[in-house]
Amino acid sequence: MSCPLCAHSKSRPSWLGSTVYLGEEFRYVECLSCKSLYCDPMPDGKTLERMYGPEYHDLFHAQENMGGTSGVTEVLSWLRREGRGKFVDYGCGAGHLLHAAKLAEWNAIGIEFEENVATRISQRIGVPVITDTAELLNRPADVLHLGDIIEHLTELDRQMPEILSLLKIGGLLLAQGPLENHANLFKLGVKIGRQLRRGRATEMAPYHVLLTTAEGQRRLFRRFGLHELKYSISEAAWPAPAKITFDDLAQPRSVGLYFLRRCSQALSAMRPHSWGNRYFYAGRRMT
Question: Which of 27, 43, 39, 35 is nearest to 8 (CA)?
Answer without folding.
Answer: 35
